[in-house]
Amino acid sequence: MDTLKKLAILSAAAKYDVSCSSSGSDRGKRKGMVGNATLSGICHSWSEDGRCISLLKILMTNVCSYDCAFCVNRRSNDVPRATFTPEEIAELTIGFYRRNYIEGLFLSSAVHTSPDYTMEKLLATVRQLRQVHRYNGYIHLKAIPGADERLIQAAGQFVDRMSVNIELPSAESLQLLAPQKQREHILQPMAQINHGITANREERRTFRRAPRFVPAGQSTQLIVGATTEDDRRICQLAEGLYRRFQLKRVYYSAYVPVVDNPKLPALTAPPLKREHRLYQADWLLRFYGFGADELLDPAQPYLDLDVDPKTGWALRNLHFFPLEINQADYAQLLRVPGIGVQSARRIVAARRMGTIHFEHLQRIGVVLRRARYFITCQGRYYGQAAFDAMAIRRKLVGTSTPAAAGEQLSLF
Ligand code: SF4
């Protein structure tokens, strides 16, 4: 099979993996090397369905010895198969890079023969790119759960980012849909990579020229909507992963109904809106000081599909509002729907110069369409609605009752 045919098969097979954002590496040009991984050298573009398309995103192989029910590449699925050699991937990458087609490589793989065999081939590929082709651009590599930790350690010295896919939110779901995968085989390399990153940071404080280890950090991907876990469970899991392993990102991938299997929900389309709300909630966990148990609780285990998670939280916690713009502290301002990190900072800075008037807020970057219901400015409320959750919801989305979130689960 020629390389182009393989490329067609293996780039199509990789499209379900969404964890390919390339932010975080700041390595510049190096003498005698090709490319760089600076932010300006790696621009992100997104396809219509929100997938990152700025990297050469391929699988090394889609020949898989596992049979994960949700996956198009599972062993029992009758699809065309192909396998790249490390040399082929290295030549493709450097060739595309020189022609300016790509800004980096995202390399994943099915489990060919065994985790160790696959990881050895992945390691050979990235080693060849760095040492033979002197490629200095961005590389994001998937670590194969269950592979020997020495292989993962060695690969970490050649790549910018590594990720281990957690795949499903619980060990029970993994057992149901991907019985050959074990939760501990996924968490163990995450812990190893985290430890390697921390140790490398320490080492480089003493020896500035010590080789880097996964300098852009690690991420993971989680499939949403293929199993029964609610959004609360997913947010709790993400929060735990950020805390335990210092992940850069958790990527949420709406389950794309690719297979007909009674263990899977009979969806007609991926739950993209749910995926979007989870990304918003994730943002609140990482940058806005929210905890998973604040955003959702046992009585409200799904994110409101009609409003963003911060607005949903505000509507359930109206006792926290209205906040006076001229007095609320930074952490309180971050809780106001329509006020982001930048606008909260600007408000705090502007208050040092004098009183803020309502007319200033739009220029500061506040989204008044949402914020006006939750603030006062110089003591005056501009909400144009009764200060009541149902009235505010009606103003915001035209209805006073939340949509039935997570509704696709009833199709099991
Ligand atoms: S290991 Fe599972 S998820 Fe990964 S390619 Fe194979 S079947 Fe798909």
From TrEMBL:
Keywords: Iron, Iron-sulfur, Metal-binding, S-adenosyl-L-methionine
UniProt keyword annotation of Transmembrane helix present: no
One Pfam family matching this protein: Radical_SAM
KW Cytoplasm (keyword) present: no
Domain of life from the UniProt record: Bacteria
Name the record gives this protein: Putative DNA modification/repair radical SAM protein
Segments forming domain Radical SAM core: 48-293
Annotated GO MF terms: catalytic activity; iron-sulfur cluster binding; metal ion binding
SUPFAM superfamilies recorded: Radical SAM enzymes, RuvA domain 2-like
